[in-house]
Specification:
Structural class of chain A: alpha/beta
Helix content of chain B: 55-70%
Oligomer: heterodimer
Shape of chain B: elongated
Order of helices and strands of chain B: EEHHEHHHHHH
Distance between the termini of chain B: 55 Å
Radius of gyration of chain B: 19 Å
Largest sheet of chain A: 13 strands, parallel
Radius of gyration of chain A: 27 Å
Strand content of chain A: 15-25%
Strand order of the largest sheet of chain A: 1-2-3-4-5-7-9-11-14-15-16-17-18
Shape of chain A: globular
Largest interface: A-B, 45 and 42 residues
Order of helices and strands of chain A: HHEHHEHEHEHEEEEEEEHEEEHEEHEHE
Number of strands of chain B: 3
C-alpha cells in the first residue's frame, strides 16, 4: 500500500503569474547521475516506483549501485506466526516471491554496471542453491564491493545438509584460466570477485578454506563477517598481505580454532574466544569477545599473552603483555552466584590506553545472589585514559560493586559511568507476560540497589546514569 | 584568502582552508589555476553565497555534532528551485557532505508519497499512456505492494 503524507509547505504545487500554467519540472533538470544518487537514498522498492513517474525516469532506478533486497517486514511477520501449518504455507509462498524478486531485478540488470552493495537476506536453503549461485555469479561479474548473504536458517542450530553451501570453485577457477563452454558471466565473475571489500555470510555453509581463499585473493577485502556456519572448523588469518581490518566470527558451533597472526587487523569480534589464538596483531584496537568456558579469565589471558612481546618499563616487568593499541574492550561474562570478577582488572591494567570498558553480565536471575560479603580489592594502578565504563546487567551484587569501586579509585580521568540493570542479551523468542513482569520487577530492584550502593560514591564531575 | 567569481559577476572571499571542502576548488588551487580568482561559471551568486554559508559553518563548528545537525536541518528549508540549484552547485564543486545532505532531503520528500503525489510536487508531466503505465506497474508489481 502506498502511504500518504502531508506535503511540506515549501514543496506544494504552485502556479506562476500566468494563470493556469504550472511551474516547470525542475527536478528533471538534474543530470542522470544526481537523480540516481537521490534514488540511492531510498529503499529498492521506493526507487523502483519512480520508474512510473515519466519516461525520463523509467530506467533510472536500475542504475542504482546498491541493491538491498530487504524483506524484514515479511520476516518479522513470519517469525511471529505461532501455528506451524500457517507458518509452513507462509514461508513457502514468501520464499517463491522473494526469489522471483531477486531474479527479476538482479538477473535483468545491466551486467556491465558496477555494483557497490548487494544484500540478500531471507530464509533460503540449499533447495534454492542454483538460484543463489546465479545471483552470486552475477554480483561478482558486476564487481560487487560489499556483499551480504544472510540465509536465516530455519533450524537452530542449522542442519548443515540443508543449508546452502558456498562453493567458490563454481565461479572462481583456481587455475585462473577460463575454459571453453563456460559462459561469459563466469569469466567476468572470476575477475570481478577480486573487487570485494566487505563480505558477510550468515547462516550458510562456508568452510575456512573458502574464507581463506577470499582473504588471499581479494586485495581490498577489509571486512569479513561469518555467522552460524556449522562447517567452519578452522580459520587462519595470517600474513601481512591480507588487507583485513575487521573480522567477526560468531555462533560457529563446530569451530575448533581461529588463528590471527601477523596481520593489521584493527577490530575483532567473536563468540568463540576459547578457540582464539592471537599473535602479533599490533594494530588491534577494538576487541569484542565472548567465550563459553568455566574459566574465562584464564582463557582470555592465554590468548592475550600471545600478543605483543613483553614490555619492560623501568625494570618492572608487567604481569601481562601490554596491549598498547586497545581502546575499547567489551567483556561478556555469565558470572554466576556472587563470584568475584575482580580478576578482570588485570586485563584492564594490561591495556594502558584503554578508553572504554563495557562489561555485560549475562547471568540468569535465579543464578545471582546478593549477599553481604567483604569487597575484594585489586592492586591500585592509575588508568590514564579510561573515560567510559558501562556495566550492563547490573544486579547489585558485591562482585559488581567491587568493580565500581575499583574504577572509581583507579580511573583517574573517568567521565561517564553507566549502570544498566536490563538483561543485555537480545533474546529472540517472545516472552510471556509473566516473564516480562518478573523481569521488570527484577530491573526495578536492581536500580534501587544501584542507587543505594553507588550514588553516594560518585564525585560530582563524573556523569553517572542508571538506565 | 581565495576569491570566487559567480556566473553573474558577484565576488566572494573565503579562507583557503574552508574553500578546500570543495574538491573542485582544491584541485584548482593545487594546479595553480587560482592566482587572482577562481571563476565559477556554473554557479550563480545567490547559490554560491548559500554554499559558502554551509562550508563556513562546517569548517568552524567541525566537532559540534548537535549544532551541525540542527544547522543542516534549517539549511535545507528552502524552496524547491533553490534546493536544486544547491544540488547542482554541490555536484559541480564536489562537496560531498552538502550533496549528501541535499539529495537526502529530496529523497525524504519522495519516500512517503505516492507516484501521483511525487508528480504533483515536482511538476513532473506524466507522458505515459494509461496502458503503458498499467503495464509498467504490473511489471514492477513487487515495488507497489
Amino acid at each position: 500500500m502506498e502511504s500518504r503524507a502531508i506535503l511540506a509547505t515549501g514543496f506544494g504545487p504552485r502556479k506562476c503569474a500566468k494563470i493556469g500554467q504550472p511551474l516547470k519540472d525542475q527536478i528533471s533538470r538534474l543530470p542522470d547521475e544526481i537523480l540516481v544518487y537521490i534514488l540511492s537514498c531510498l529503499t529498492l522498492k521506493e526507487a523502483a516506483r519512480t520508474s512510473v513517474l515519466s519516461k525520463r525516469w523509467i530506467d533510472l532506478w536500475r542504475s542504482m549501485a546498491c541493491l538491498d533486497f530487504d524483506a524484514s517486514k515479511v520476516l518479522k511477520k513470519m517469525f511471529s506466526i505461532s501455528s506451524w501449518g500457517r507458518y509452513a504455507d507462509f514461508v513457502r509462498k514468501e520464499r517463491c516471491k522473494y526469489v522471483e524478486w531477486v531474479d527479476k531485478v538482479l538477473l535483468q540488470s545491466d551486467k556491465s554496471l558496477a555494483l557497490d552493495d548487494l544484500r540478500v537476506a531471507f530464509c533460503l536453503d540449499n533447495f534454492y542453491g542454483d538460484k543463489i549461485h546465479k545471483w552470486l555469479q552475477h554480483a561478482f561479474a558486476r564487481r560487487v564491493q560489499r556483499l551480504e548473504l544472510n540465509l536465516f536458517a530455519d533450524d537452530d542450530p542449522p542442519s548443515s545438509q540443508e543449508s546452502y553451501t558456498f562453493h567458490y570453485e563454481l565461479f572462481c577457477l583456481s587455475s585462473g584460466q577460463s575454459q571453453p563452454g563456460y559462459s561469459e558471466i563466469h569469466h567476468h565473475a572470476q575477475i570481478g570477485f577480486k573487487s570485494l571489500r566487505a563480505l558477510s555470510l550468515k547462516s550458510l555453509n562456508v568452510t575456512g578454506e573458502v574464507l581463506e581463499f577470499f582473504l588471499i585473493n581479494c586485495p581490498f577485502l577489509e571486512r569479513l563477517v561469518v555467522e552460524a556456519s556449522s562447517v567452519l572448523i578452522n580459520l587462519r588469518v595470517c600474513g601481512p598481505s591480507i588487507a583485513l581490518k575487521y573480522l567477526e566470527v560468531c555462533c560457529c558451533l563446530m569451530l575448533q580454532s581461529i588463528i590471527v597472526s601477523d596481520t593489521n587487523l584493527v577490530s575483532l569480534k567473536t563468540t568463540e574466544a576459547h578457540h582464539l589464538v592471537l599473535q602479533n596483531v599490533p594494530m588491534l584496537v577494538n576487541v569484542w569477545v565472548s567465550g563459553n568456558s568455566r574459566n574465562l579469565v584464564r582463557d582470555v589471558t592465554s590468548w592475550l599473552s600471545c600478543c605483543l612481546s613483553k614490555l619492560e618499563e623501568k625494570g618492572i616487568v608487567h604481569e601481562l603483555p601490554q596491549l598498547t593499541n586497545l581502546k575499547e574492550f567489551v567483556l561478556i561474562a555469565s558470572a554466576s552466584k556472587d563470584h568475584s570478577l575482580i580478576g578482570f582488572t588485570s586485563l584492564i591494567r594490561a591495556s594502558p590506553n584503554l578508553e572504554k570498558f563495557v562489561l555485560k553480565l549475562e547471568s540468569w536471575w535465579d543464578d545471582m545472589v546478593r549477599r553481604d560479603r567483604k569487597l575484594k580489592k585489586a592492586a591500585s594502578f592509575p588508568l590514564q585514559h579510561l573515560k567510559v565504563v558501562e556495566l550492563l546487567g547490573y544486579y547489585g551484587r558485591r562482585s559488581e560493586l567491587e568493580l565500581v569501586e575499583y574504577f572509581l579509585e583507579n580511573a583517574i580521568v573517568l567521565e561517564k559511568l553507566i549502570i544498566d540493570p536490563r538483561d543485555p542479551r537480545n533474546v529472540t523468542w517472545p516472552k510471556t507476560r509473566k516473564e516480562r513482569k518478573q523481569e521488570k520487577k527484577q530491573e526495578k530492584l536492581a536500580r534501587i540497589c544501584a542507587k543505594q550502593q553507588i550514588e553516594g560514591l560518585i564525585p560530582s564531575h563524573i556523569e553517572f546514569s542508571i538506565l | 584568502m581565495i576569491v570566487l567569481n559567480s556566473s553573474d559577476g558577484a565576488t566572494f572571499e573565503v579562507e583557503e582552508s574552508v574553500a578546500v571542502q570543495s574538491q573542485t576548488i582544491k584541485h584548482m588551487i593545487e594546479d595553480n589555476c587560482a592566482d587572482t580568482s577562481i571563476p565559477l561559471p556554473n554557479v550563480n551568486g545567490v547559490t554560491l553565497a548559500r554554499v559558502l554559508e554551509y562550508i563556513k559553518k562546517h569548517a568552524e563548528a567541525k566537532d559540534d555534532e548537535e549544532g551541525l545537525k540542527s544547522f543542516d536541518a534549517e539549511f535545507v528549508k528552502v524552496d524547491q528551485a533553490s534546493l536544486f540549484e544547491i544540488i547542482l552547485a554541490a555536484n559541480y564543486l564536489d562537496i560531498k557532505g552538502l550533496l549528501d545532505l541535499t539529495c537526502q532531503t529530496v529523497a525524504d520528500q519522495i519516500k512517503d508519497l505516492t507516484v501521483e503525489e511525487v508528480r504533483a510536487i515536482f511538476n513532473i508531466m506524466n507522458d505515459f499512456t494509461p496502458e503503458e503505465e498499467a503495464k509498467l506497474r504490473n511489471d514492477h508489481a513487487w515495488a507497489f505492494e
